Amino acid sequence: MEVNNQPVEEVKHFKYSGAIIDQTLTFTENSVKRANQRLFLIRKLRSFGISQHILEMAYKSLVESILSFNITAWYSNLSVKNKNMLSEIVNIAEKVIGKSQKQLCSIWGKLPLPRPHRIGYMKPS
């Protein structure tokens, strides 16, 4: 494969912003591991008596952000096993926080699809 007449190295996986992306754009175990590590932090916050509102903010910042990173690229390709692993993380977070959280399937379903850019398109003035 070439870009601008320069050969591009093919790799089996690539790390980008802390997420490992493989050649089939499937979800990797690394993201589940990172999400579980951060759930531990939320459990610790709860043990200190932090309010439910703050716990929910911490979950969305620390865990949901990992799970939903580039969700439009990989979610539709997930196996049932991987979808269940993700759902389990969200379910554990709900128990820790004490409040229902959005499942990733609902987050993915509500995202707008990217629109292709038309070359040479100009907005009317």
Biggest pleated sheet: 2 strands, antiparallel
Give the overall shape: elongated
The helix/strand class is: mainly alpha
Number of strands: 4
Uncertain runs are none
Order of helices and strands: EEEEHHHHH
> Helical proportion?
40-55%
Please give the radius of gyration in angstroms.
Answer: 18 Å
Question: Can you give the mean pLDDT?
Answer: 79
Cα distance spanning the termini: 40 Å
Total number of helices:
5
Order of strands, main sheet, comes to 1-2
Strand content range: 5-15%
Fold topology:
Layout: E1 2-3, E2 6-7, E3 13-16, E4 19-22, H1 29-47, H2 52-67, H3 71-74, H4 80-97, H5 104-110
Antiparallel strand pairs: 1-2, 3-4
Describe this structure in words.
The longest helix is centred in the first third of the chain and has 19 residues. The chain has a domain of about 80 residues. The protein has a two-stranded antiparallel sheet. Strands 3-4 form a two-stranded antiparallel sheet. By secondary structure, it is mainly alpha-helical.
